[in-house]
Amino acid sequence: MKPVLMCRDVVVDFDGFRALQGVDLVVYPHEVRFLIGPNGAGKTTLLDVICGRTRATDGRVLFFSHDITQRPEYEIVQIGIARKFQSPSIFPFLTVWENMELAMRQDRRLRSVLRAKLTGEEKEMMAAQLEKIGLLDERHRLAGSLSHGQKQWLEIGMQLIQRPQLLLLDEPIAGMSAAERERTGEWLHEMAEHCAVIIVEHDMDFVRRYSKQVTVMHEGKVLCEGSMDEVQQNERVIDVYLGRGKNACCASGM
Amino acid sequence: MNKRWGYWLFFAALFLAPFYLTEFRLSLLGKFLCFAIVAVGISLIWGHTGILSLGHGVYFGLGAYCMAMYLKLEASRGHLPDFMEWSGVRELPWFWKPFAHPMVAIAAAIALPTLLAALLSYFTFKNRIQGVYFSLLSQAVVVVFVTLFIGKQEWTGGTNGLTNFSTVFGFSLSSPLTQIVLYWLTAAVLALIFVMTRRLTTGRLGKVLIAIRDAENRVRFLGFNPTVYKVFVYSLSAAFAGVAGALFVLQVGLISPEMMGIIPSIEMVLWAAVGGRHSLMGAIMGAIVMNTAKSFLSENYPDLWLLLLGALFVVVVLFVPKGLAGIYESLAAVRIKEKRGHECEARVDVS
User: Fold this and answer.
1) Which residues in chain B touch residue A93, judged by CB atoms under 8 angstroms apart?
2) What is the rounded average pLDDT of the residues B326-333?
3) How far apart are CA A173 and CA B89, in angstroms?
4) B333 touches chain A (CB under 8 A)
């Protein structure tokens, strides 16, 4: 099977601080890949490189056969990589419906947006998606007036309707209740039917429950890869986590 | 639907103005409508897209000067314009020559401001210079142009600007009929620009613009290139200002560097702020109300005007950030709520 994403020896140098020191990562279609590791390991930086927010100093990022290493963010999104950030970032002064309209897969160049009108088919698709995330009745409300949880769901709906082939998530369950975590976990596997997912997550219970493949990062490098059980047995991983015994959020789970 | 009726009424009242206003008041209103055209553009970039430009005086001025060059050449009847003779210029400069054709002048009045705005905004927005930095930059452009226009007296008429026109397309500018026709033209252009901008802002483009205003980065990660959109609306608003400048000079008969300077540029922003920058009609009303107040106050208390202007700005920013349109909207919202309340009660009664 052809990989969705291949990172080859990716280096990021922030004025002398090497946040990534040669990272290799291969992700296959329909995979849910968890990135874990102590703070400062470079997980978020790696996501930033993939989605074009941070430029790689060296190395290459391939998305299918496209070299996306030097492409601007909006082009990377257009070819199928979506990114969800830590805080819910919806547009507060647009309605739920309008938020979905912008997120929908479409030609995003100015001249087609100028003429764009929703077709019946698109409306049905948007309504179906809203129904799924439980926001259909709220569609005329301003997104800013939704509850925190509803905002999270709106954002997830926006990711789904974008139909990405690779979805990047940065701590998606931060600040969620237990029930919401569960729904998110289920949603993750639903997402994986349509696309590959890379998730940065600190909550080890969540990782254990929903992961198949885990990549452990440490000091800008990939330490090891494997299932959660394999990873937990790995000597070097134990050293990294236990050696930093006070790093409670991660160590407690290991 | 209600709103649409309001728009029809408003524009009908504007078109009928020559029948109920004196010649003097009509000429003032014509001038204010030019400002209203600028205000629509400001509302588009500031209220809808979050770009605060403190440099729209330049675009207005460029449009006005382009038109004025044609008027000046027509008034000079084949001779050198008077101010050039006084400055010792012997021959008409090459860049003045095309302006003998009115169509060239009109095209330039739109194209030059648009091009300048496109260049300025492309290089700033591409490099992700935003917010107050862009505002300062746009203000700097004003200083550059005003200095240039004053300095190059032999080409631009210096501080006095361009004035003493006689005819347009062969019709006398001082004739009341010409002035009425020009007034109608201005009202028609305002209506056209309003309808066009309204269509843009209510369509998908409008949603992209609001999204850019509130979270530009997020828009980028939805796959839109905000630079293209921002350059487009900024240039469009400069084009509006250019058209407004051309119409202004036709009716007022004068353009000088003072009218494109920093204070007029800030006033333009104020019109939109007072009227409600998020609302196109609010911006139009803001321009008309503010300028009516200004002409009334400066007729009666000329020294107080600038102080009042400053005070008004502070009051609007602190207490009515959504301007006149915001006041109207909250009144309308209360009315709708009351209506709904009655309906609910009625329903309860029935059950």
Assistant:
1) 210, 213-214
2) 84
3) 75
4) no
What chain B residue is nearest to A75 in terms of C-alpha separation?
Answer: B223
- Tell if the CB–CB gap between A101 and B224 is shorter than 8 Å: no
In this structure, the answer to whether residues B330 and B258 fall within a common structural domain is no
What does pLDDT average to over chain B? 90
| Partner residue facing B222 (CB), from A77, A92, A98 | A77
| Model confidence pLDDT, tens digit, residues B105-126 | 999 999 999 999 999 999 999 9
Q: Tokens 């897969």 — which residue?
A: A105
**How far lies B15's CA from each of A84, B38, B136, B195, B234, in Å?**
52, 19, 38, 16, 29
Predicted confidence (pLDDT) at residue B60 exceeds the cutoff of 50: yes
Domain ranges, residue B349: 320-351
Residue in chain B closest to A76 (alpha carbons) equals: B223
Q: Are residues B172 and B42 in the same domain?
A: yes
* pLDDT band at residue A203 using 50, 70 and 90 as cut-offs: confident
Per-position b or e across B207-241, b if 16+ CB within 10 A of its CB: bbbbbbbbbbebbbbbbbbbbbbbbbbbbbbbbbb
Q: Is the pLDDT of residue B346 over 80?
A: no
Among the partner-chain residues B204, B207, B224, the one whose CB lies closest to the CB of A74 is B224
Using the beta-carbon criterion (under 8 Å), do A113 and B222 form an inter-chain contact?
no
**Under CATH, which architecture does the A1-80+164-254 domain have?**
3-Layer(aba) Sandwich (3.40)
